[in-house]
Amino acid sequence: MLRFLTAGESHGPALTCIVEGLPAGLNFTEEGLGDELARRRLGFGRGRRMKIERDELELLGGVRFGATLGGPVSVVIRNTEWPKWQEEMSPHPGGEARRRMTTPRPGHADLVGMVKYDTHDARDILERSSARETAARTVAGYAAKQLLGEIDVSIVSHVVAIGSVEAPDGVIPGPDEHERVDASPVRCLDEAASEAMVAEIEAAHADRDTLGGVVEVVVHGLPEGVGSHVHWDRRLDARLAGALMSIQAIKAVEVGDGLETARRRGSAAHDEITYEAGSFSRTTDRAGGIEGGMATGQPIRVRAAMKPLSTLMRPLRTVDVDTKEPDKAFRERTDTCAVPAAGIVAEQMVAIVVAQEVQRMFGGDTAGDLRRSVEGYRKRLSEF
């Protein structure tokens, strides 16, 4: 079953990712992976780093002639800015920081990490806790999407809120609408809301502040029954929530109508079941395509709420860990808003979990084996 490990620092020589458990015969190319990585840099409100950052890829193993071999896939994403940082981030003995960062940022991993690892230099922490690490996760997410594509499962995200601006409810992207969503500067389907979100970001930038928001990820085509009601750690909704919460700056997750459902009476909270044309269906999708920890066959909808970024142009109050005196938090390059890009990362994490659960249920050492297993299951469902 698919699993992955990332390594590397934000300003180190490279990020690396090893993906294990992929079946043989999946399409896997540098061009396809490069396109997915480029999507991660999308969105109005990004800082200067997105303009200079480039993802130089190298496939080191597990792929031949554009297809997976069945063994671990290894990918390196080189940091094109490494020459500027090789002294500050040198892995060799004898190096010394030019400027220790001793004033941790509120809302960041800085202080807790410094205490945990007994360091008075926040760079030891921030380099790994940076969201730049998600570039390496994209390798695993791309692989998961390729696997799911073999069984006609599609995953697409869109932005539903930035700051105080919310898009109208009830509009979700279709399985093939990635380009339509990405064409929006904030990856929002509603044109009026998109314009308002851009204005909200511009206002925050003018105030030298940051904004958070909410993204929604939609899974189309997943066969009903994927997941489990039997084991707590295999419930599909629980696994999706955990994966999304692992993304830097994500503070809440909602499945389907989630919080709104909690305010309804039971008679208005659930999706009534019908049977037509030889199949079961629901009249609504309040549950977000998951019941009892398993996919219902409807589109799966999960939302993730991202907090405003904690690196501010007008730093908040903090304490210097050396002097223990009040001070202002240090500043690194930052974005005003990274919510549109967070949607892409959320897609990757959802794809990874869904691919893992598909593999758990259907197995297959080759892409063909997986397809045939799913086709047999879908045939059984049609005869239920």
List the main descriptive attributes of the protein structure presented here.
globular; four-stranded antiparallel β-sheet; single chain; 12 helices; 17 strands; alpha+beta; 384 residues
Describe the overall structure:
- This protein is an alpha+beta fold.
- It is 33% helix and 21% strand.
- The protein contains 12 helices and 17 strands.
- The chain has helices at residues 30-39, 49-52, 82-85, 110-117, 123-129, 134-149, 178-182, 191-206, 236-245, 258-262, 339-362, 367-382; strands spanning 3-7, 14-20, 55-61, 63-64, 67-68, 73-79, 154-162, 165-166, 213-220, 250-255, 273-276, 279-282, 290-291, 294-295, 300-306, 317-319, 326-328.
- The strands form 6 sheets. Strands 8-7-9-15-10 form a 5-stranded antiparallel β-sheet. A 4-stranded antiparallel β-sheet has the order 1-2-6-3, with helices on one face.
- Helix 1 crosses helix 6, helix 6 crosses helix 11 and helix 9 runs antiparallel to helix 11.
- The two termini are 28 Å apart.
- The model has no long low-confidence stretch (mean pLDDT 95).
SSE blueprint:
Layout: E1 3-7, E2 14-20, H1 30-39, H2 49-52, E3 55-61, E4 63-64, E5 67-68, E6 73-79, H3 82-85, H4 110-117, H5 123-129, H6 134-149, E7 154-162, E8 165-166, H7 178-182, H8 191-206, E9 213-220, H9 236-245, E10 250-255, H10 258-262, E11 273-276, E12 279-282, E13 290-291, E14 294-295, E15 300-306, E16 317-319, E17 326-328, H11 339-362, H12 367-382
Antiparallel strand pairs: 1-2, 2-6, 3-6, 4-5, 7-8, 7-9, 9-15, 10-15, 11-12, 13-14, 16-17
Helix pairs in contact: 1-6, 4-5, 6-11, 9-11
